[in-house]
Amino acid sequence: MEARAYRTLLVAQTGAVATITMNKPERKNPLGPEMVNELCWALDDAKDDASVRAVVLTGAGGAFSAGGDLKQMSGGTDGGPEPLAPRGDYVDLLLRFTTIGKPTIARVPGIAMGGGLGLVASCDFAIGCESATFGTPEIKRGLFPMMIMAVLRRVVSRRRLMDMMLLGEKLDAREAERIELISRCVPDAELDAAVSALAEKLAAQSPTAMRMGLAAFHAQADRDLAGALPYLRDRLVAILGTEDAREGLMAFMEKRTPQWTGR
């Protein structure tokens, strides 16, 4: 991962796993234009770095993200060094999760609201601790979770989403797991171990299969069955022609662990 002069993020890599931490803990990591832009940079770097095979997104200070930064929305700014050049806004950020080509995990150590919840829903996996809380409180501020409803509707049912958006009430982690807003709820003390174990398992898979499979998943998501199946047949033919597919099949027949090349 590139070393950049981030003002709102911490970025680290351990083995094949990159961890991106939203780092405004004193304000529960609100998503202002600067943090959104830096997240676009960090995800782009993770995509382009062949040594990264899985990405963990989390927040500092016992929170994931409280949502939109109302201070920056109303014209306030944070001081500090020169910001990074523009890479995108919140819409661009959400779309990054469909093109990164590597599995993403939301590690939720606490509150995840509004735009923060949109990031949770955009990740391929989400693990939250028991004390975490979730919600779309925008309605109570005279607003509405416009952009994030597009990603939320892909992970929860219409009835439950209407309940969340129109009432604006908080959900605990067990309820979030029940409605599949998150993948798993674990005891607070087990959060890091659960995220690490999942990230390591994902990083051990073929990066070629991950990249092509995730791209195909997102490309076919909004097609009807008659359009999706021929497209996926063609993508299967394409993946069968890769070095990783040949290695995986050979390793299976030889009863050994495959050695992925990423090609």
Question: What features would you describe in this structure?
Answer:
- There is one protein chain.
- With 263 residues, the protein is an alpha/beta fold.
- Helix content is 43%, strand content 14%.
- β2, α1 (33-48) and β3 form a beta-alpha-beta unit.
- α9 packs antiparallel against α10 (225-240).
- The longest helix has 16 residues, at 33-48.
- It is globular, with a radius of gyration of 19 Å.
The beta-strand count equals 9
Number of helices: 11
The residue fraction in helices comes out at: 40-55%
Rg over alpha carbons: 19 Å
Described by strand count, sense and barrel closure, the largest sheet is:
6 strands, mixed
Low-confidence stretches: none
> Mean pLDDT across all residues, rounded?
95
Shape: globular
Query: How do the SSEs run, as a string of H and E?
Result: EEHEHHEEHEEHHEHEHHHH
| Class per helix and strand makeup | alpha/beta
Terminal Cα span: 20 Å
Oligomer: single chain
In order across it, which strands form the biggest sheet? 1-2-3-4-6-9
Strand content: 5-15%
Topology:
Layout: E1 9-14, E2 17-22, H1 33-48, E3 54-59, H2 70-73, H3 90-99, E4 104-108, E5 112-113, H4 115-122, E6 125-129, E7 133-135, H5 148-152, H6 158-167, E8 171-172, H7 173-178, E9 184-186, H8 191-203, H9 207-220, H10 225-240, H11 243-253
Parallel strand pairs: 2-3, 3-4, 4-6, 5-7, 6-9
Antiparallel strand pairs: 1-2, 7-8
Entry keywords:
about 45% helix, alpha/beta, 3-stranded mixed beta sheet, 6-stranded mixed beta sheet, single chain, about 260 residues
